[in-house]
Structure formats: structure tokens, C-alpha cells
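Table S2 (continued). Query chain:
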Amino acid sequence: AGGRKNGLPGAGFTMTERTPLLHYRLSTSVNESELRAAQQKQQKKLSTFFGVVIPTLLSMFSVVVFLRIGLAVGQAGLYQAIAMYVVAYIIICMTVLSVCAISTNGALDAGGAYYMISRALGPEFGGSIGIMFFLANVCGSALMVLGLVEAILSTFGVPEATSHYQVLPSGYWWSLLYGTGIALLCLLVCLVGAHIYAKTTFLIFVIVIVVLITVFISFFAVHPQSITLPDLKPNATGPTTANFTGFKLDTLLGNIWADYTVDYTTQTTMTFATVFAVMFNGCTGIMAGSNMSGDLKNPSYSIPRGTITAVIFTFIVYIMLSVLVACTCDRLLLQRDYSFLRDINVWHPFVIIGVYSSTLSAAMSNLIGASRVLYAMAKDDLFGKALWLAKKTSHSGNPWVSVLISWFLVQLVLFSGKLNTIASIVTIFFLLVYAAVDLACLALEWASAPNFRPTFRYFTWHTCILGIIGCAIMMFLINAIYASASIAFMLLLLLLIHYLSPTSSWGYISQALIFHQVRKYLLMLDVRKDHVKFWRPQILLMVSNPRSSVGLITFINDIKKSGLYVLGHVQLGDLNTLPSDPLQAQYESWLSLVDHLNIKAFVNLTLADSVRHGVQHLLFISGLGGMRPNTLVLGFYDDCLPKDKLIDPSILDYGEFGDGKVLGPQEYVAIIADAMKMLKNVVLARYFNNFDRAQVLSPPSCTPGKRAVYVDVWPVNLLRPDSCSYVDTCSLFLLQLACILNMVRDWRKATLRLFLCVEEGRSVRGPEEKLGQLLKDLRIKAQIHPVPWDQQVALHWQRQGNWGKKHFPSNATRVSDDYLSAVNKLILDQARPQPAVRFLYLPRPPADTRRYTAYLRQLELLTQDLGPTLLIHGVTPVITTDL
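Corresponding output:
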């Protein structure tokens, strides 16, 4: 900088060129060591097969593949069973497509579905769904542990036919002990880290695949045989054996159509919906690979390929098993023995090992998934210090505290001891998460943001909607009460996070969607179709010092009537002489002011060589399409000292406003004239520096129980004593703004007082009736007060020296100070009780620019000491009596 200042640009350039080189040489060794550490850490990350395919496969298989295939075919028949799988996988695939799209649209961190949803839909949605996903994984892990305990006790806890002892003691506390031991085993694996978890699940995967191969072989290798059915409930009667027939056409024909009967385990009659709900549980493991996103080498590559591979593989296995079962097993066997695959296997313990292995794997998968979601939420600080412990990790990056917290909650769920107690709610929670992922992808697609360009393109907004609808239908099909309660719980969490969590820097999809829709509707807003019936004020309020303009800013917010409201500010300067745009740093402070005052306004700042040019800029360019300001509001040009009305100094903290004026009276009036030339209505606001809206709307009253608020309207041009017209464009504009203020909820109790200036010698009844009829036609409720002003008019003519002259050549009529003081006193005399605000007629500035200063002097005398006053000039028709 010094070099440039002294005319030596080369000096400054050389130093900035050398510094990075020196820094690079000093830090080379540090960067190399960090790179080696990063490479070692990367080597420990999981591949697509170990990190996504295996966990997803095992989670989707779980126990359904071994223990519920018979239920689906036996109750629903082959046709309906296949239809169920097709429908279920269509629902699942819609969500898988959304997962693939989001995961290939940039870097993915730990947290899986939570990370996708929170970064797409924002912290509120992400946090609420994240908690539900965490709870779903916790309950899912407990569900699998309880399922494994039940499977173990059904094999080893029941006395055998030839002996009178139990291999394993059974009962609630014994079951809890077994469940605790299994949960501890899962905890140990997850505490060591994702690498050991991957090796363990690979071992289990090999076991499950071997078992599945033996199951398929058994259909061909095992000879037809009679199988003993499990005992029914006491006092129940029925067949005690059923047949494995091998491949027979008669067996297939007997299993094609549905035959819903009573489930022998629950004694409830099965329906399409209940069978579908049970079978669908086997398809809800698609997020197991996504949950490991923080432990994958390349999540954006691995998640789509691994998840799709697992989904296709499981679908093929389910369909093949259903066909083989329908061709070889009696309908009675399928309906009365859900563990028949064990009885027809080449070696019976194979299926038992498969059930144990798949269930243990699913329990571990849910536990490690829960810990990763909890860790991701803790890192994002959505819940403040509540989850600060969950951020801790080991040297290898394993979030061991999150694992411990998840395991502790799993242990608590185990105390329920009942599988069916939590099975439905777990599935509904998972479905809610899937629907949220579809919603996130749908929102990103509809927002049409340029940065949403996933490398996976096999999805559309139609697939997202189908996924959302499918998940919603399944939720209510499984349990309508649980589904409704889950949605209500999610909405409650959403509201809590919205009001309690800090602002995030992830971006809000709502802003992108709003932008997309607003742009579309702005293009549809055709200014050529504007009609006076639907006119509303679109206001540009010029603010010099916002700290002293709080009263005016809040008041103008009341008269915008759902129209455009823009706060404009002109900063004097020349961009050629500045290093950067000074307005960029101020813009956020202005937005903070808007938030602080709780007003619905936009902010427009401009840099100009004069205030007049700046206002012209804003009048020309403010707004967009059919939403452009039609009314300019200016503070009055007087000597009132500005007062700071903002309690919080941090709201607007760039303090460059001084008390001195930055424009003269000539320029001020020129701005008014410019606006009228541009066919903008003009409002000058005086004495609003001490205006307190809350105090005005709740004034102290001498009469107990009665509080009166008045708004005074003087719809005649008081600078033209010869004018007594109340129906010109400007007068009607005054009435419209006063009526709009009276329509605002907080101002509805205010009474409009309309002052009718009359001469004493003439009948008051005619003009009053005429004005009353006009108000009736315009649907404006106001009190009419006739005011004699002969003395003031006479004073004017006396000063003019033309008593009989009743014609004025232009709007530049000269009026004396005595006349203006008399009119001012007349207005003050009518102020009983004192009005909250006055609306006065603003005449046009004189055509002769040399008389601008005199014009401003006239306005100042007219409004002297009147309290909050609006001088208003309307240039366009705004009122109609038509329907």
C-alpha cells in the first residue's frame, strides 16, 4: 500500500508475491505430516462393499427372510405376496432414488439420512427427523435383541420331548439378562470402531449367504416328508402335521390365491394390511449403508451403488423364495409353522444359525447407526450443551460417547420385554424418515437451484412424490394412531428447534422455494392489468438516520395495507474513489433493524453524488415487475434535532449519521417535484420523531373505561383559499390513506374526523350532505365537522389587496405568513381532543424553482406545532364506487 502511495507499485507487488513462498517453505514439513496422517486415516475408511452393501443386505434380511416368508405366501397366496413385494419395493426404491440423488450432490459427512435432510431442509426439519431417526435406530436395535432372545429361548428354553428340564431358564428377568448380554456384545464391537464392525458384519454376511444357499438347495435335495406342527393354544384343536411335498403343480395351485386365517401365534385374523405390514418390516433397512457415511472412503460414490445393489439382491431373493415355497409346501404348513425352513433344511441347525446371525447383525447395525446420527447432531450444536458429551471421539475418530449413550437407551428399551410393543412404532419412525428424505429431494428439485446437480440422475419429482405418498399410506396402514402421534411428535420437535436453536449456515431450502415461486408469480403480475379497484399503497420511505426515524417507520408500516414497503437510504459518495462498496457492510444492519421493529419491509440502499440523484435511483429501480413503489414518503425538512429511539445499540451500529443536514431546502423540494413528475404520490411526515405507536393507541383517559383515538383529515388545499373542492384526486387520496389506517386492526378503534371548511354566510347543509353522500358511496365511516374559515380567508385577501378577486393563475399562489399562521391556529383550535395524527393536503411545488424555498416555508408555517402530521399529494386515482 505504501509503495503504491509513493508511486512505486512494484514494491507492494513483490512483497505479496514472496510472502506465500516463504510461508510454503516453512510449513512444508507440517503439511507433509498432516497429509500422511490423513492418508492413514483414509486407509481405515470402508469400501462400498463393506460399508454399504453388507450392512444394507443384513438389515433388509434380518429375520423376515427366515421366519416370515411362510406367513406372506401362506396367508396372502403367491400372487398377492409377489404384489406385496412389488409395491413395497416400489415405495422403497422411490426413497432409494432420493437418497442416491442427495448423496451424489456434494460431500457427505457423518449422520446419513440426518445429514441429508438437515442440509437440504434446514436445521428444524433435520433436527426433528434426526431425533426420530436416532430413536428409531435405538428401538430397532432393542427390537432385534429381543427377537434374538426370543429365537434362542424358542430353541433352547423349551423342554425337549424326551427330557424334563430346560436347557436355559426362561422368564422376564432371565430374558432381560440374555438381552443385556447380547447388547453388551454389540456395544463392544461398536466401541472398537467401524473397522471391526465391518469385519464382524462380513463374517455374519458370509454365514447368512451360506445359510440362504442351503435353503435354496434344500427345496431340491430334501425328499417330501410330513412335518410336525407347533402346539396350538390350550383347548385348541386342529391337524398336528403338514406336508413338504416337493415340486408339485397341485401344491402350487393350492398356494396361488389368498386364504387369510387366524395367526396361530397371536390368535388374530390376518388381512392384506396386517400381512403387508409384517412383510414390509423386512424392507426397512435401506439406510444402514447411509448411516455409515462418515466412515466411508467415498460416500457419494458408495451409497448409491451399494444401496441399489442390496435392494436388487434382496428383492430377487424374496421373490425366488416365495415361488419355491409356493411350489413345495402345503398351505397348512405355511400357515401353522413359520419356522418350517428349519424343518426342511438339509441340516436343521443351519437356519437357526442364520436367524441368530442376521438378527445380531441388524442389532449392531442399528446401534452403530444410532450412534452416528447422535454424533452428527451433537457436532451441529442443534441442542446446545445438551449433547456436548456426544461430540467426543477416540483417536481413530470413533464417537465412543455416542455409542455408550445409544447402548444405554437400548438397554432401557429392553425393559419393555415385548417385541410387539415397539415393532410398529419402529417401522413408522423409519417410514417417516424415508418420507422426509423424499421431501428433501423433492424440495431441492422444485427449487431448481443451479447447485443441485447430482451425478445420479435417475429420479424426478414424480418419484419423490410417489415415495412420500407410499410412505404415508404405509404408516397409516401399519397403525393409524402411532402414525398420527409420530407426525405430531415430529411437528412439536420442529417448532422447538425452530425457536430454540441458533441460526445455521447450511442454507434454507425454504428460501430457494420461495424465490422460485415468487419469481414465477412476479412474471404473472402484469402491470397492464392494474385496476383502481385493487389499488394498494406501495411505499418507498426515505430514511436518513434510522435511529431517529423509528416512529415514522412503524407508522408507515400500518398504512401499507399489504402492499410493498421499502426502506430507502442514500449514502453520498463516489464508487470510483472508494476501495469497495460501503453499502454491503451496512445491509445486514438494516435487515436487523427490520427484524427488531417487527415490520414487513424491504431495504434498498444506494450510493450517489447527491441525495436527489439517490432518490431518483431508488424511484426508478426499487421493486420488480408489478411490485414497484407508487408513493414516496419523506421526513419533513425542519430543524428538529434527531433523537435515538433504538434501545439496543447493536441493531444499527455504523454511526455515520451526524445531526447536520446533507441536502438543502432547494434540493429537498426538487425531490418532491421529481417524484410528482414520475407520477408518484408524495407524503411528507412531520413531528414523527417522538411518535410512540404503543402510547398513541393506548392513551390515558380522564373517563374511566373509555379511550378515544382520533385521526383528523383536512382534505382541502389550505394554500388555495379559493379552493373548496373535496373531490379532486389529491383529496380522495387523503381519504383513502386515512381509511386504510382505520382498517388496520390496532387502529380500528380510532375515529376519523373530516373537517369541512365553509363560509358562514352560506348554508352548511348542502356541502355537508354532499360530502356525507360521497363518504357513504366510498364506504368510509367518518365524522364530518364543518369549520367556518371566513376570517382566515378574509385575512388572505386583505394581504393580497384584491378583495374582489376570486381567481388565481396557478398553484403558485402566494399566501402571507399571517394567513398561514391563522390557518395553523384554526387547525389547532379544532384539536379537542388531540388527534393521534393529522392528514393534510400537500399542494404541488411551484413551477418556478426559485420559489422552492418560499414553498417549503409555507408548509412549515402551516404545520407548526401540529404534532404528527402527514402532508399528502396524490397524483393517480385510487378510489372507485364500482363493485
